[in-house]
Each structure stands twice: as structure tokens, then as C-alpha cells.
Amino acid sequence: MKYAAIAVSALAMLISAGCGDGGARSDDSAVNGAGASFPAPVYQAWSYGYSNIDGNPAVNYQSVGSGAGVAQLKAGTVDFAGTDDPLSARECADFGLEQFPMLAGGVVVIVNLPGVPDGGLRLSRRVLAGMFLGDIVNWNDPEIAADNPGLPLPDLPVAVVHRADASGTSSIFTDYLSKVSAAWRERVGAGPSVGWPVGVGGQKNPGVCNSVARIRGAIGYTEYTYAKEAGLNMAMLETRDGAFVKPTVEAFSAAVSAADWLNAPGFAVMPTDLPGAGVWPITGVTYIVFRRDGAQNSGRLGVMIDYFRWCMTDGGTAAAELDYVPLPPAVSGLVLNGVLGK
Amino acid sequence: MKHSFGDCLFKWGCLFCAAMALLLLFGFFAQLTAGSAEAWRRFGFGFLVSSAWDPVAGKFGALPAVTGTLLTTAIALIAALPLAFAAAMYLTDAPRPIALVLGHAVDLLAAIPSVIYGMWGLFVLVPLMQDHVQPFLVERLGLCGLPFVNRDFNGFGIFTAGIILAVMILPYICAVMRDVFVMTPPVLRESAFGVGCTRWEVARDIVLGYGMRGVMGGVFIGLGRALGETMAVLFVIGNVMKMPDGIFSGSTTIAATLANNFPEADGLQKSALFALGLILLCMSFGIQSLSQYCLRADAVRRGSR
């Protein structure tokens, strides 16, 4: 019996030793973050750039998904979380969290239509929602043709491709569809994963791009960077004002500037379907959430704030090189003087 | 004689390791049951027959995922069994150098990680299905008249997933069958040939009769692997949380649903995913039990002969 107790305690020691190594914590001064995968390439580039400056500690970011990152922050295993879905002001208050926007990005609509030139297709708000609802089933539908005079629209079934995994990209896209279509709002709703009325699911952004490239007559949505890299045909979308706009970094920036940041508690804004000229209608923002008073980061809070300030002021070039959209100065100024104020 | 300290420690250590399997199994059931409690409370056994999957409204049902799992597994077995049987039969009787080379090749097939099969499926099998196989089946053979074959296809779906699973489980089934066939006592085969049996008669009546156990074992190993396979299926099945219209429809399996949704799930959805996990564990458990039962029944029948 005594030996059993020894064996059990030895096992317990082994397990606890294993857990201790579990976190990606190299030393006490290192700052650890986890969360959204969409901005992860930029965060990793920033961490590298920041840590390479003499005297700066290491900043780690694990790309585990928005929901998982926020859960880890609430559990106190990381110092900050990245999320594509802003937390509500109430949730921030309940858990003592602070939130601010870090980067913007555009969600674009990609199509696979033989004979239609790149960027030549115009999709109105009604048509886009109709396709994803399964009401418009063929590309030769007169409603599509009405917006595209002279465009050779093929007689092909509309094959919708959506994300199979829960994702911030889907949140932004379904939020937009809920704003432009009452039918979508009632039948489907918005969220990181929804009950899609039609279509097949692709794995993450590259999976959606691949399926769209593969299926003739496909229509899907993805982050701009992935569509650009894959060289896919991106459609023009109708803005709230009724004009058609091309997906460009300038249009994403314009949408972020058009949002009402001052009156949004916790900066919780979805800059989709905003009025204004040249505003891309499906723009999203990715957020950083952190805990100021947590015992966890008592020593690391200063480092963290310094790192975020560096990202906002010196990180723009690195972000733009990776085709992400830095926040416009007016918005980053609000953050630098507010949450991240000295 | 009094046992030494070392002997005792060794005995308890061994007992602990042996008991570990049971503890783990129990732990899996307990954890999945506890995790899925909320979903069972909310949906009851209606969860098993509901085809709803609406995370926004908080409605979940297991039927589409269970159906997809069963259909892909069935297609995989139907496609893999005859191939594996023929291959094993040949490898048993083939000239030694050929059997050696081909046998190793089959074994190596089993060593390929499933994500590689997934990539191959996405980049090679899906376009092949879309451009050649499915048009041939639907337009040339006119199979779309059948109730379970749909007219619309795009390469993704249950059929493609079933075929890729067939390729993945083939080496397992083949390896087990081969090992069993080789163990047929030579004297039995030689006597059969001696009384004038053809090769096919020897294969059917002697080798297969003697190796039925192994064939069943191989089938169940393949079945177990096909049920739980995740990565390869994920890439090609289309990931649609709805009841399929036919075998070319996009669908989903339990394992694929879990892999897709776990990272971002919380609350009721997480509980529903745990419930799906419990269903999968029960299915695998059931199949293992069934295989044990079959094999034992087989052994008893054999022994009484």
C-alpha cells in the first residue's frame, strides 16, 4: 500500500512538472498573447521586430483562434488576447478587461466565372444576400445582369463556398448580410459560425480560396490578403449609397475612418455597411484585449503597453508589407491617447 | 520468502500501467458525458434525430454528422474490401521477390500521415472527381436516375470522402488479411491442390475459410479507422451541416465537425460537440465489441467442428 502511495505521488509530480512546462513562457519578463489567427502574421512580425530592439523583452503570440484566446485571457494564462469579434462593453467590465482596435482588414467576395474579367463583376446588396440565401441559383439571373450590362454572364449554377470552421471572417461577413437583408437577419443571423442555408464549407481562408478556384460558378468570401495572393477574381460591391466600389486598401481605410469610434464603448465597432463615398462595405477590425489590474501582468503591464504603442506607431510599414491595413491616424490617435495613454 | 522492495515496486508499477488503459477509457466516457450534459438536458434524445445545426439560434442535432460518418464509412468499406482481399490473396501466393516488394509498398501506404491523404484528395482527387468520374457516372451511365445520386456535383462530398477513406484503410485490411492467409497450413493447401482443386477453389474454400477470422479482424480495423478519420475527410467532404441529398452532396462527419468547430466553440455549442464526441466513442466502442463477438463466435464454431 505504501508503495502505491509512492507511485501515485511520483506520478503527481510528473504531471505537475509537465503542466509547468505547458505554457509558452520562456522567462518572467516575456509577454504572452494568444488569439485570432487572421492578424497572427503581423503580430508575429511585430514581435520579431520589437524584440530585436536592444533591451526589449520577448513578446509571444499564439494563433489559437479568437474565442480560445479570450478564454485563455480570462483564465489568466496569457497577458493579452487578439480577437476579431469585439467583446461587448459589459463583458469587458465583468472580467476587468480593456479593449482597443489594432488592425483593419477587408473581407472580399471572390468568384470563379469563366469569361468575366477580374474585378468586372458588380454585386448589389440584394443579389449578394440572395445568392448566400439560396434564392438566386444561376449566374444568368436577370437581377445580376441588370447591374452588369454587357458582361457575359455564364449559364452556371451558383455554388456558394463558406467557411467550415468558426471564424471572425464569417462574423464580419454575416454581420454585413444581416444589415443589408432582413431575410438573412431572420433566417440565419450573424456569428462566427452560422447555419448556412446553402453551399459547401472550406477550411480557413486558404480552403475557401481553393474551393472557389476549383468550382466553376463558385462564389465565396475571404480576407483580402488571401484573395490577392491566390489571384482570384474579386467582385465590386454596392455601398450603402448605391455606388459600386472596388476592394482596395484605401477603401478599407475609408471604412475604418467612417466608423463612429468616439461613441463606441470599448471601441466595439463593426465597420460594415457604412455610408460614404469609396467605403468598402465589408470591412473588419481586429482587437487586442488585455487586463490592466491582473496580478498576472503586474510586472509586464508596462512592457505590454510599450509594445502596443510601438506597434501602432512604428509597425505600420510591416503591416502594409503583409497587405494588412494599419488603422488610420485619427483612430490610432484615439487609442494612443486613450487606453494606451502614458 | 519475503519479496524485496524492488519486486513490489515492479509489481505495482506493472499493475498501474495495465490499469491505465481501463482508467483512461473510463475517463474518456466520464469527461465526454459530463461535458455533454447540458446538450442532453436541453435536447434530450431528440439530439440524435434532429438535423438542425444553427449556432446563432442555439439549435443542434447530430443526425447530419452521424449520417455522413456512416455513409463515408460504408462507401470506404465497399470500395476497399474487394481490393484488399484480391491484393492479399495475390501477395500470399506471389513469387517471393514480387511479394516482398509489393508487400512493403502496401505497408508503406499505411505509414502516410492522413493530412497528406487530405492534400492529395484536395488537389488530385477532387478535380479528378469533378471533371471525369462524376460526369461519367452521372451523364454517361445516367446514374442520376437513382434516388441517392444527385445531378449537381462539384467534386467535394460524401463519395469523394468515401474513396479517399478506402485508399487509407486498404493497407490495414490488406496487411491483416495477408498475415492470416500466410498462416494457412501448407498441408491443407497442398492436399486441396492434390485432390484437383483450382486456385480459386483453394482461395475460396481453404484460405478464406481458414482465415475468416483475420478477414473479419481486418474489416473491423478498417472500419474503426474510417469512423474516426478526421484530417483527410475534412479536406474533401465539403463540410455541410445538413442532411445530404445524395452521395455527391457535401456533408460532414462527426470527427470533421469536431475539428472544425472546437477552437471557437463555447457554451451550448461546445456541449453539443462533446455530445457528438460521445456518440463517436460509443460507435467505435460498439464496433469493437461487435468485432470481439463475431471473432469469438467464429472461434467457437470452428472449435466445435
Question: What does this 3D model show about the protein?
Answer:
The complex is a heterodimer of chains A (342) and B (305). Chain A has 342 residues and is an alpha/beta fold. Chain A folds into two domains: 2-104 and 285-341, D-Maltodextrin-Binding Protein, domain 2, CATH 3.40.190.10; 107-267, Periplasmic binding protein-like II (D-Maltodextrin-Binding Protein, domain 2). Chain A contains 14 helices and 13 strands. Chain A has helices at residues 2-20, 40-51, 66-75, 89-95, 125-133, 142-147, 168-180, 182-187, 204-214, 224-230, 249-258, 301-314, 316-321, 329-337; strands at 31-35, 59-63, 80-83, 97-111, 122-123, 159-163, 200-202, 218-223, 233-234, 236-238, 244-245, 283-291, 325-326. Chain A is elongated and about 65 Å long. The model of chain A is unreliable at 4-26 (pLDDT under 50). With 305 residues, chain B is an all-alpha fold. Chain B has one domain: MetI-like (MetI-like fold), CATH 1.10.3720.10. Helices cover 76% and strands 1% of the residues of chain B. Chain B is built from twelve helices and two strands; from the N terminus they run ααββαααααααααα. Chain B has helices at 5-43, 46-49, 63-93, 96-111, 114-140, 158-182, 186-194, 199-210, 212-228, 231-236, 254-261, 267-304; strands spanning 53-54, 59-60. In chain B, helix 7 packs antiparallel against helix 8 (199-210). Chain B starts with a helix and ends with a helix. Classes of the chains: A alpha/beta (342), B mainly alpha (305). At the A-B interface, helix 1, helix 3, strand 7 and helix 9 of A face helix 1, strand 1 and helix 5 of B.
